[in-house]
Amino acid sequence: MPDFQLMRRKLQTAGMTHAIFLSLPVTLFAIFYVYPIISTFNLSLHSWDGFSPTPKYVGLRNYVVLLHQSRFYHAVLNNISWLVFLLLGPTSLGLLLATLLDRGMKGEAVFRVVFFLPFTIPAVAVAAIWRWMYEPTGGLLTTILQSVELGGLAQNWLGDPSIVNFALMGSMLWWTTGFAFLVFFAGLRNIPVEYIEAARIEGATPWQVFWKVSFPLLWPSTIVVLGMAAVDAMRLFDIVWAMTNGGPAYASEVLATQMYDTAFGRFEMGRASAISVYLLVIAGLIIMPYIHQLAKRVQDAEAE
Amino acid sequence: MRNLKWIGVALGMLAGASAARADGPKELWHYYAAGSEKAGIEALIAFANKQNPDNQIVGKVIPGNAVEMRRQLQTAFMGNTPPAAYQSSMAFELKTFVDSGKLHDLSETWAKIKGDEIFPEGVQRVVKVDGKPYGIPYDLSLINNIFYSKAIFEKAGLQPPKDYEGLVAVCDKLRAAGVEPLGNAGGPFWSLYNFYAPLVSSVGTEGYYKIASGELGFDSPEFRKALELYRDTMVKCYAKNWSGKTWTQTADDVVNGNTGMFMMGAWAAAYFKQAGFAPVEKFDVFPAPGTEGKAIFQMDAFAVPEGPVDTLETAEKFVISAASAEGQATFAVPKGSLAPNVTVDPSIYDAVGAKFAKQLADASKANAVLPNLFFLLPTKVGTELGVQLEKFAIDPSDANESELISTLESLRQEAQAEGAYLKW
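Above: the input entities. Below: the structure tokens describing the complete assembly.
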């Protein structure tokens, strides 16, 4: 006969312990995440310059005005281009570098540091470095192209509205590939050697070993890298702001920089809040399936 | 228990630190982070602190520009911890803060420093809101001059042009000599500042103020004429790839002999000097066509937020020192800017600085001192004007011209409906 009272008491104590342990993170989450979101949503229904004592209620006007601005759509499109780029660019380059290094190259330790080093540099410093690299007349990139007789390919990197986003992505590639590389490299090193050897003994080519054995086993690393890339694409601000301020003439603007410019460049806090609510919704639509998938995998793993 | 004791000690120290902060020197916020401007503000603070030993002030750099300063101030105002004084742009930048009741009325201080006598009329009107002064001018730079490399001009046998035809002819000759004619830089300010010259040439001083007050539309024939003059002269002269450069990178192009002219604010003179490019010997300036006898200027002033009595007292003493002839010279010489105070001895300036000072004095007499239009317009109109002009300067197509006109005109009407415009 089970002792129900004892079990209930145990459960109660465990519940209390859980509640106590959870109270701090939940409070912090409520204060620093939930409250600002509610407050931002509330502000987005007002017209406010950021200083006057009373914001003026305008209903959904800020949302409607934004939907009629080509500037807003342009920023949304830029965020989506960044999403595609960050999911594919640094991720695949990082995987390539990790795979190359995993083959036991000479000087592996040195390359490991070299590949990861850019990621340790703060965004503003990366921006300052690349502003010089991209100087269109005497910058490093133009100079290198000219020295190998490819001067015709040199561009007005940060000043041409049709080029600037690619130029920014180039600097981002340099900056963030190190992260993807590190995660994939660690993932590759965690794959038991027996699996690879077994595949080789079975006569698999290196290509087949990679795609049929290593890559599927890298799935946890891939999930982390892709998830971070998606989050980065949505919250992108620092590199763009520090390098171009979203210019020339809005060409490289993303939602976060537009929000900042609207808030502090033009004193339209309400409209800026509406931009951030849109950003939250868009980011949610993109990232929620990922989180859902992740949670499901964790559940499955626990069930196993 | 032991942990609790340590927490208590830590809290005590924090409380002590904040109390010390309240009693210690008051803060002056500015965004002079490096180079000659940093030297200028440090010299001024040292000068004021020497004059006011009981009311010390410390400088605090807010990295960035006016936008970052606004962000920092907004947070500080929310938390009720604004600085004693801060670097502010003129006109609308001050007005926004005045409207929300955040700034201290400086009428008494203004009377003490005899502000109506020591500052030119054009300067006074952009620090006064509803007739009351809210800023003390200290950092003035003319923005209607074109710098040129003397070596390049001499080699090509050129003289500084007097009108737009002359400017275009000089550009053609420079290009033929393998030199980029006229430098410009990316961002919403520089093309706009360049555009003021064709604008004043087309609409006159009165028209300039009418645009500032919203009376003259962006779809008016006069404004369109100004755009076309800008397109057919300066835009045609611009150096290849200008939009991908910062202003200092373009200044380097002039120093390195790749670019012949550069229309930039007077601060470029200080940059040239620091790069070993000596005034008059290596470079000189001439007023942009159509602005001879006029002075278009950009200016910063010290604004004083409302605050406790002792903080206000320190701020007042600081701005009085900063407004004095000696204080103004202390800042202007290292910074390479002009002192707005007319009692400052012109001999403090180098040869090019003296030219600027004379230009300002002559324009003051002729009542032709024009403040930077960007700050006379409601903030959202001024900012959009800068962005649209940069876009137009990069690609002066008819489509971009129409978009510029329609975007700005609808913004003007919106701002007018909101009663946002002011007559400065």
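Note for the figure: Residues 144 and 313 of chain B are 37 Å apart (CA to CA).
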